[in-house]
From TrEMBL:
<dbReference type="InterPro" id="IPR015422">
    <property type="entry name" value="PyrdxlP-dep_Trfase_small"/>
</dbReference>
<dbReference type="InterPro" id="IPR001917">
    <property type="entry name" value="Aminotrans_II_pyridoxalP_BS"/>
</dbReference>
<dbReference type="Pfam" id="PF00155">
    <property type="entry name" value="Aminotran_1_2"/>
</dbReference>
<protein>
    <submittedName>
        <fullName>Pyridoxal phosphate-dependent transferase major region subdomain 2</fullName>
    </submittedName>
</protein>
<dbReference type="InterPro" id="IPR050087">
    <property type="entry name" value="AON_synthase_class-II"/>
</dbReference>
<dbReference type="InterPro" id="IPR015424">
    <property type="entry name" value="PyrdxlP-dep_Trfase"/>
</dbReference>
<dbReference type="GO" id="GO:0009102">
    <property type="term" value="P:biotin biosynthetic process"/>
</dbReference>
<dbReference type="InterPro" id="IPR004839">
    <property type="entry name" value="Aminotransferase_I/II_large"/>
</dbReference>
<dbReference type="GO" id="GO:0016740">
    <property type="term" value="F:transferase activity"/>
</dbReference>
<dbReference type="InterPro" id="IPR015421">
    <property type="entry name" value="PyrdxlP-dep_Trfase_major"/>
</dbReference>
<feature type="domain" description="Aminotransferase class I/classII large">
    <location>
        <begin position="47"/>
        <end position="409"/>
    </location>
</feature>
<dbReference type="GO" id="GO:0030170">
    <property type="term" value="F:pyridoxal phosphate binding"/>
</dbReference>
<keyword id="KW-0663">Pyridoxal phosphate</keyword>
<keyword id="KW-0808">Transferase</keyword>
<comment type="similarity">
    <text>Belongs to the class-II pyridoxal-phosphate-dependent aminotransferase family. BioF subfamily.</text>
</comment>
Amino acid sequence: MSASDKETRGTAPAAPGRLIDALSEALSRRETRSARRRLTILPQETVDFSSNDFLSLATSPAYRTRFLGHLNSVPEGFPFASGGSRLLDGNSAYAEDLERFVADFHRAPTALLFNSGFDANVGVLSSIPQPGDLLLYDELIHASVHEGMRLSRAGKRVMFAHSSPQGLRGALEAQIKEDPKVHQGAKNVFVVIESIYSMDGDVAPIKEFIEVVDELLPQQNGYFIVDEAHATGVFGPRGAGVVQELGVQDRIFIRVHTFGKALASHGAMVLCGPETRDYLINYARSLIYTTALGFPFLASIRTAYELLSAGETQPLQGQLQRLIRHLHGRLATLRTSPSVLFEVDHFPTSPIFSLRTSQPRQLASACQQDGYIVRAIMPPTIPEGKERVRVCLHAGNTEQEIDGLIQSIQSWLDLSGKQMTKL
Ligand SMILES: Cc1ncc(COP(=O)(O)O)c(C=O)c1O
């Protein structure tokens, strides 16, 4: 061993040893709580009741043909990679045209592309609220919003009860009482919600929230930020989202639409006014300090929006709603035993179903063994005590597949009921 070897081995391993021990201990604690996450690869020939590919666009021939057409339309030598940050070499006429196309589709003044919904939420929440401002957020808001809020300079973050206009009212009234500047309009108040919640699949009462804010903040210093990740493509006119379904787009300060779910792509756009867009270009670090999406991703977003705006995905939206009604009806026919906790949480038009049980891993594993991919959702992704199996429907699922899944759940319920009675 050389002297320099001795030096590096003498100083370096001690810290990594302790570090690795700490990491392993954290993992073991998760293991003990049955909360350890693992990467998995799905076997072939399984039925997808799990992914967010709600319209089944990822495997749609219409999508594929149009997407490949866009890829083939560019001349030899056209760069597929963006080559840098949007602010340096990563911008293009294609990206700007795509933003205008998406903004028009969503009836928004402007749109700004981010590399993911995560980046969009982090960029918006970390940069836009000003020092001293107030952030009010739904208790089930996505992790990316939490991440953005952590980085934010806003004075205060206050949670309100999930999808509860009364909860928002209570939280806002308390802040108004505490700080007169809120009511006087001297501080901005941001209300951050999702239009469809990723885990529970329920639709937010956006109009009722607007009424609360209009009443309590007459100086018009209330600003809504609505994450439409799970609504994009699935809800609203031609899949434009819940905000447009309600016709309240002019009351929403920022909408975030993501493309990695129903749109078979990747990335996200922030819909906002021109000044806000310009501000984000200057201050959103998750936009500035990252390589912009390359042409293949832009082309796939373009493909999805061309299909949406031509109305080609409407039959898929319709088919998805038929399947939702079918699964909703079939779940109601399940025979349960009093000894096994099993409840279905489902918002009528939503493709996301929650099967609440104390043994979500066992139920998910029984369905997976029968070839139906569903996922157990455990804390910390959801609050303690809210464990569930999440079932997602897609336009490409069939009634037979749904009936098969129901059979699988029934068999598990019967078996668990028998096992519990024996105990
Ligand atoms: C509500 C919500 N917002 C944002 C995101 C992040 O979007 P992306 O996957 O594009 O990063 C997700 C994804 O899980 C989500 O469910």
